[in-house]
TrEMBL record:
The gene is arhgap18. Residues 226-252 have a biased composition (Basic and acidic residues). SUPFAM superfamilies: GTPase activation domain, GAP (SSF48350). Keywords: GTPase activation. Pfam families: RhoGAP, Ubiquitin_RHG40_C. This is Rho GTPase-activating protein 18 isoform X2. The lineage of its organism: Eukaryota, Metazoa, Chordata, Craniata, Vertebrata. Residues 71-93 have a biased composition (Low complexity). One of its GO terms (cellular component) is cytoplasm. The keyword Cell inner membrane does not apply. Residues 142-151 have a biased composition (Acidic residues).
Amino acid sequence: MTPHEPAVFFLSLKVHLWLWVMDFLQHIPNHRRTGHYTLQQNQNAQHGEKYSPSAMSKTSGTDPSSLPGTSSVASPSSQHSSSPKPGSSPRHSPNTRSRPQPTCQRCNSQDSLDELEMDDYWKEVENITRSGDGAGRGEGGGEGEGESQEEEQQKFPEEGEQEEAWLTEAGLARLFDDSLAADQDQEEDSAVFLSTLTRTQAAAVERRVTSLQQTLLRRRNRQHLPDVRDIFRSPEKDGEPHKLKEGSENGQKDPSSAEIETELNVEVAFSEQALTNRDNHQRLKVTNSLNSPDDKLPNFKLLRDKTGQTKIGDLSPLDMKKVLRFVLVEMTALFDTAGIDLKTHKPVKVKTRESGLFGVPLSTLLDQDQRRAPGTKVPFVLQRLINHIEEEGLDTEGLLRIPGAATRVKSLCQELESCFYEGTFPWQQLKQHDAASLLKLFIRELPHPLLTVEHLNTFIAVNKFPTKKQQLQALHLLVLLLPEANRDTLKALVEFFQRVIDHQAKNKMTLNNVSVVMAPNIFMFKGFRSKVTEQQEFSMATSTANIVRLLIRYQNLLWTIPKFIMNQVRRQNMESQRKQNKERAVRKLLKKITTDRPSDKAVPEESSQGFIRVHAPQFSKVSMAVQLTEELQAADVLTRFLSQDSSVTVKNEELCLYEIGGNIKERCLDGETYMKDLFQLNPTAEWVIKVVQR
């Protein structure tokens, strides 16, 4: 060997190494190189192996060996081979080397996410990056404020701010603010509310009051805060403290039965159920098979409630406000019981457009739409896009997955902005895939995410619960906590996604396919930036896809109010009335009201004979007596009323029998409500038939 040969050899090695690095970088999507992923993973490292990507795969019903995230941990070579590469989609990356496709075919199962389906996720991310979101809003889009939209870092609350905001939202600001202590009504409301909490809910409140007290004492050395020991009394007679202990309570069950159970118990607080079964779930993590090829989503159904199911929108605004307070406390208690730390984000101000269609806040869109049609709950443009896609037919293969041409979609976006409300947009020329791309663009362009800045990471943290049942319970509470506009818009979307899935035999879009395609559109947004590691990004992909999958699969359950929450609202109303009646007792005696003469209401006398009086003030037949039987349902009452009043021109589905007064303000009854059972729950209520706006 000559003296120059070693130098030549090492120079050649360097060149080959440099070429390999450059080739590797070309295979990394742009959003990975720039860090333009808009979510911050919920500190998986703090939870150790329990919340690692491999553990995530257990909760999302996925074989770890099929996940890009888990295979990337094994070795650098396996990490490289399973990275989400544009090269896996030659159509979108003609200049990159395509990797060998797996021998498996596209999965038609609704149950688990396979690697081939996750490729659709990364292709969708690449399409989003290449589309240059927001470019079309200012150009021909009206006022062009969208171009000045700011990208800000997600902001975590300062020390104590999270607890303070939480207590304020729960209506318990009196517990930390001395200035509110003199407000008698506020003090009584807080006392009544606290008296209805379960032990896990009370523990969640106590934990945050204690934490805030310690923070304020450190910050201001304030000595006159209410003592948490004076606020809470331990409900256990045996002297056990409120603090939740590790280990099981009563009711040991076979750990293998946790996921098999398909009935959802909504009569007992979810956090109480989680506390009872906590040890069983821990064992389930160890004994549950990780190699099952058919980890099905359970067919959950609600236990039959003879007093009727309550849907969002069935309650009066006053009762709904109480529902949200209880849901917030219950959701926090459920996460506390599972040992999942929640780090919410502060909403930040982002420059947004004040008119238009894309890049406009939901509240602004609905305000301008409600001026045209009062009562509108979902933006017109989203409704019209969904209707157009359905009118063109849902059998189109790859619907939602195959993107429209980027330049054409940009042009259509600008045309929609200028022509939509004038009614001159050429809908007949809009192609199916272009319409689907516009729908996804609309979701991504919202200045704040559809699932809200405050709750977005909490939605992702749902994957940390050990069973699908607990994931569904947590998701149920989170959906209820969304603002009304976000909740209604999300409902319209998941209903549309289900209709697409119903045509999967033709369009090849299963539940999993739709979920992985829509996940980046729902969870990636323009208002924030945060850098995540490659491992976090893998985990986030499967986590967000699983959340969308659960939202679609269980939508019929998620937009209902659990019975245990309704019972707490009823107890709060009864306790408030009892306190009010005490205050009025003296005045009633002095004025001798109602004691010397019979009540004008005939309901008590009729009820004692097994009848109720149903009122219908909007119609010519203003009331009728109905005999209570074991099988009488609310729908039967409406049918009988329509048969007796021939002047009524509305249809049965346009009417609702309302429960008014007693321990509820107002509630539209489910048609399958058994009237005798509900009467026993609320004997002093009035029953009124009214036209309802669905």
